[in-house]
Structure formats: structure tokens, C-alpha cells
């Protein structure tokens, strides 16, 4: 496919997504219907679609509207690609530009700070400005670009150097990242990771560097009892198991189906994680981890559709659920034990505000809080470590 044909494909996909089709499903259906497209074409089309979802507001402002054509025109403008070389109508290229589109191109582009702000949901903008303070502009700009892929090296299976060599054997280049001592940032070959030997042997796992940084700061007694109360696919539990091989880790989730990957992942990693049925946790733990359901605003580079789906009502539901989960888990923390509350959100209402409200209810003291944003390289992430009195 020519670069222009890839853009034409992205235009039709973006229109299907705007009409309500989830992005992943639209891409899968497009791949099935266009079997001639090679892996490079698929990757390029996917990147156009995800870039446009991430930068929907700014591309629409630059391209004169949020239709597929408007967004791709906006992308051309943002990336200084001459639209006349793309919108030619030749072969499989998009149709030539109409008079209205040419007028949009001739008009002055909005100021850079205005463009960056348009890529947040409008109703959240003031909240984000207040929460991010002096970091607002830098974080907003970082959230417009594709997120890097990070791996966590499982130090029970090998060193960083061994992981780098094994990845290189499979054509994957990576480098250590200063935020966490287990972290590798993938430089090329990211799409090959899940089929690589290093991954299949459990030497590396996919995990954002911010989560790794938070978890490596946890200290535990020998043979500590640990509960991962919102375990999902087990990313946090597995990281903890690798750092504390003597710990007895129980994973729990309100939705047991979300934990189905834990057993195969733990088998690959050589870790032992016990699964608890939903609502069937008993006993006391030295550490309870609450990786709470949240807006995911810190990960919107990866999941840009979620950013446009979030509503004030859903955010209010989430904060109520976060309070509920904190209350439910507090009784599982042994006296003197730790409670680690985490979200992948940039919003203070899901982070500091929840922790402050919980502390006010008594029985716990704050040990530390950490706020990470893409400025440090990884996803937006929040963690507060509390101690039961
Ligand atoms: C942020 S995700 C967890 C991600 C996971 N810890 C990881 O590292 O891969 C939040 C999880 O909380 C679970 N959850 C939602 N409500 C819950 C509740 N009331 N009790 C326990 N888990 C809940 C969701 O099913 C979801 O899997």
C-alpha cells in the first residue's frame, strides 16, 4: 500500500469508529477484509487510527472537523505532510481536496497551547490544569504521543544483560530505563515481544515502568503474606512475586474471569500465586495492594478511546467504588501491616482525595505518596503507602 492508501484506509476506519464501532474491532475487521495488506501496512494504518484518536481534538481543529477526512487532514498539517501529495484521488489515495478543505488549510492554525488542550475532554480540562499545575503543558504534550513499550526483567530468571541479549536474538532492541532497576524500554521490535523466547521463558513481562518503580520501593518481611485485592491479569502480583520470592501472594478480583491469565503468567515466571474466589478473602496480610479501578487517565496514550468515553457520572461512580474498596480491604491488613493504594490516573479526585478521605476515617497513617506522569517516561500513576496502626 502507498502512504496515501494507508491514510485512505485510516479515514474509513475513523468514520466507522465515529459511528460507534470499537477501534480494535474495526481494525480486525479491516484486516480480514484486506488480506493483501502486509504487516507493515497494518501497523501503519493502526498507528494512523490511534494517533487520530489520541489527538482527536487538535487534528479536528487543524483539519476542519472530526470526520475521518478532517482528522487525517489535521494529521497531515500537524506533521507537516503536504496534503496535496496525499489527497490526490489517484489509485487508492483519498479523493482530492474540496474547496472547503482548501479554505481550512489556508486559514491560520490555532495556537500550540490551544491545540494541546483540545486533546483532553473539555469537561476535564480545568480539573487537569489544577491537578497538574506547572506540569500541565509538558504532561499534555507528552500525552499526545505514542506510549513507549516497557518490559520488566524477572530477576529470578536472569539479569538485565541476559534479557537484553535474549531479546536481541529475536530482533528486539531495548535499553535499561532509569526509573526502575528492572525496566527495559523497547526501542524496536515491540510487536515481536510476545512471541520472543525471553517472554515465553518468563525472563521478561510487559509492564509499564511507573508500576515497576512503585513496586520496587516496597519492603516486606521474610515470607510476607500479600493480598492483591484488584488483581486483574496479575501484573502487580507478578512484579511483587519476582521482587519477593519468599512472599505468599493471594490474588483476588471481583471478576474471576479477569484473573484467567494469572496462572499461565505465573507458570512462565516461575512464581506461585494463589487465586481467591471473588468475595472469599480471609485472614490478615502484611501487605494489601489495591490497584483500584479508575479512569485510566494516566494511560490514555495507549487507550485513547477511553478518554472520550469517560463522563462526569462515570468518574463519580469510580470515586465511590474506590472509597468502597479501600474500606473493604482495610480489615484485611494486619496490625502494623501496609496498604498500597494505586491508580493509573492523573486526577487528584481519584488519588490524593481518596487517600485523604480514607485517612480521615482513622486507623491508618500515611507512609508515602508518589505521583508519576509521562514526564518521568512511563504512564501517569499514583501510589500511596499506608500503615495500619
Ligand atoms: C486497574 S485493574 C487491575 C490491574 C491489575 N492489578 C494488573 O496489574 O494487571 C482494576 C481491577 O479491579 C477489579 N475490581 C473492580 N471492582 C472491584 C471490587 N469491588 N473488588 C475487587 N476488584 C475490583 C476489576 O475487575 C479490575 O480487574
Structure in words:
This protein is α/β, with parallel strands linked by helices and 389 residues long. It has 3 domains: 3-119, no CATH class; 150-207, Sun protein, domain 3 (Alpha-Beta Plaits); 218-388, Vaccinia Virus protein VP39 (Rossmann fold). The protein is built from 17 helices and 11 strands. It has helices at residues 3-18, 23-33, 39-54, 56-63, 68-78, 99-106, 112-118, 125-132, 136-142, 160-169, 197-200, 209-216, 235-243, 262-269, 304-309, 312-330, 352-360, and strands at 150-153, 173-176, 183-188, 204-206, 225-228, 248-251, 273-275, 285-291, 333-343, 364-372, 381-388. Helix 4 crosses helix 5. The chain is globular and about 70 Å long. It starts with a helix and ends with a strand. It binds S-adenosylmethionine. The site of S-adenosylmethionine has 16 residues, from helix 13 and helix 16. Residues 229-236, 253-255, 258, 291, 293, 321, 325 line the site of S-adenosylmethionine.
Amino acid at each position: 500500500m502507498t502512504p496515501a492508501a494507508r491514510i485512505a484506509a485510516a479515514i474509513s476506519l475513523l468514520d466507522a469508529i465515529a459511528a460507534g464501532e470499537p477501534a480494535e474491532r474495526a481494525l480486525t475487521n479491516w484486516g480480514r477484509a484486506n488480506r493483501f495488506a502486509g504487516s507493515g501496512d497494518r501497523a501503519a494504518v493502526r498507528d494512523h487510527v490511534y494517533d487520530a484518536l489520541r489527538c482527536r481534538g487538535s487534528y479536528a481543529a487543524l483539519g476542519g472537523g472530526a470526520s475521518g477526512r478532517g482528522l487525517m487532514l489535521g494529521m497531515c498539517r500537524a506533521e507537516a505532510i503536504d496534503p496535496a501529495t496525499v489527497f490526490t484521488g489517484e489509485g487508492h489515495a483519498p479523493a482530492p481536496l474540496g474547496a472547503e478543505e482548501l479554505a481550512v488549510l489556508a486559514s491560520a492554525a490555532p495556537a500550540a497551547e490551544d491545540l494541546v488542550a483540545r486533546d483532553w475532554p473539555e469537561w476535564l480540562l480545568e480539573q487537569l490544569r489544577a491537578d497538574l499545575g506547572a506540569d500541565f503543558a509538558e504532561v499534555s504534550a507528552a500525552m499526545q504521543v505514542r506510549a513507549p513499550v516497557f518490559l520488566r526483567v524477572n530477576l529470578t530468571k536472569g539479569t538485565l544483560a541476559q534479557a537484553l541479549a535474549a531479546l536481541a536474538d529475536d530482533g528486539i532492541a531495548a535499553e535499561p530505563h532509569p526509573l526502575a532497576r528492572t525496566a527495559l524500554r523497547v526501542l524496536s521490535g515491540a510487536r515481536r515481544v510476545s512471541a520472543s523466547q525471553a517472554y515465553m521463558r518468563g525472563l521478561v513481562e510487559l509492564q509499564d515502568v511507573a508500576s515497576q518503580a512503585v513496586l520496587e520501593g516496597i519492603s516486606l518481611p521474610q515470607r510476607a503474606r500479600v493480598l492483591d485485592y484488584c488483581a486483574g491479569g496479575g501484573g502487580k502480583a507478578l512484579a511483587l512475586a519476582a521482587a519477593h520470592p519468599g512472599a505468599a501472594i493471594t490474588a483476588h478480583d471481583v471478576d474471576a474471569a479477569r484473573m484467567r491469565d494469572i496462572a499461565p503468567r505465573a507458570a512462565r515466571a516461575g512464581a506461585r500465586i494463589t487465586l481467591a474466589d471473588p468475595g472469599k478473602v480471609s485472614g490478615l496480610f502484611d501487605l494489601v495492594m489495591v490497584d483500584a479501578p479508575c479512569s485510566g487517565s494516566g494511560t490514555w496514550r495507549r487507550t485513547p478511546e477511553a478518554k472520550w468515553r469517560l463522563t462526569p457520572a462515570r468518574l463519580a461512580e469510580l470515586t465511590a467504588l474506590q472509597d468502597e474498596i479501600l474500606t473493604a480491604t482495610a480489615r484485611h491488613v494486619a496490625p502494623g501491616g501496609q496498604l498500597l493504594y494505586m491508580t493509573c490516573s492523573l486526577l487528584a479526585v481519584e488519588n490524593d482525595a481518596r487517600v485523604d478521605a480514607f485517612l480521615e476515617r482513622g486507623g491508618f497513617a500515611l507512609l508515602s505518596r508518589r505521583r508519576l506522569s509521562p514526564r518521568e517516561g512511563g504512564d501517569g500513576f499514583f501510589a500511596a503507602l499506608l500503615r495500619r496502626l
